[in-house]
Hints:
With about 300 residues, this protein is of the alpha+beta class. The chain has three domains: about 5-90, Acyl-CoA dehydrogenase/oxidase, N-terminal domain (Butyryl-Coa Dehydrogenase, subunit A, domain 1); about 95-170, no CATH class; about 175-310, Butyryl-CoA Dehydrogenase, subunit A, domain 3 (Up-down Bundle), CATH 1.20.140.10. The chain has helices at about 5-15, 25-30, 50-60, 65-80, 85-90, 175-205, 220-240, 245-270, 280-295, 300-310, and strands spanning about 95-100, 105-110, 115-120, 125-130, 135-140, 140-145, 155-170, 210, 210-215. A hairpin with a 2-residue loop joins strand 2 and strand 3. The protein is globular and about 75 Å long. It holds the Pfam family Acyl-CoA_dh_N. This is Acyl-CoA dehydrogenase.
Amino acid sequence: MTLADELRAVVRAHLADRPGASWRELARDLGVAGLLVPEEYGGTGCGPAEAAAVAEELGRVLSPHPFLQSAVMAVAAARAGGAGDLLEALATGTTTATVVLPGDGDLWLDGGLLTGVVPYALAGEVVLVYTGGLLVRAAPAERRTYPTMDESRPLQELSFRATPVEPLGDGGSWARVRDLGIAALAAEQVGGARRCLEMAVEYAKTRRQFGRPIGSFQAIKHKLADLLLLVESASSAAGAAAGDELSAAVAGSYCTEAYLAAAGENIQIHGGIGITWEHPAHRYFKRATSDAQLFGPPQAHRARLAERIFAG
């Protein structure tokens, strides 16, 4: 058993035993906040495989914790910018952070002052911004939290008004930070899609119609077989996404569509109960739908992939 497999089992058991655990508790008990933080800054110094294992388990239970933006993207940006103090704070879970990538908002930097609005940003206490060829740390003048369709993934509007910034580097790392985020999101999507498949299979075994389980009907069998192939293929795509642009684009496209399909088919197999508020199926569909826009829709990932493959 690999370290990633062991970590996956520990995280799953912990989330089952303590579903309401806070981010700081997860950081203290499991070290997930500092998973990618180097040991000299209080982290565990793990790599993409371990991060993917944790992300998959968090996605499986629709965790609201800021693993994606804080433990993956912000840690990668802080490491590139040499922000040791921030890495130490992130590793303990006492601070969370989010990253604003180029194109996420209408921002401009003039004389060390940042102005503009980021309409949609993942929630985080510290804000790291890639703008004007630089990576800077800046405190927004105003934050506005949205009432989102997917309540497990909070989004904020960040406003900057001639805000002083702290330069952290030349900003050349933004593409890798984005691709690491896409890879972690793909792993989350696999976790959610796999849970949708599990729910559909469990229901197909127990729901009876015309005197037998609906899972014995050929139409349901075909749906579940197609979903299994889709989830396993998505798992392979996410596992191959190590943060480089090509593999991240493949995972971003395939895993997004796989999650949407799994969440939708889960509702269909459940029938009437699947569209009720009492059943959790709708929550996975909402997460899959919002995830599909987080780093751009699947078409955007494929377009970036085509540019690289067919360049020249």
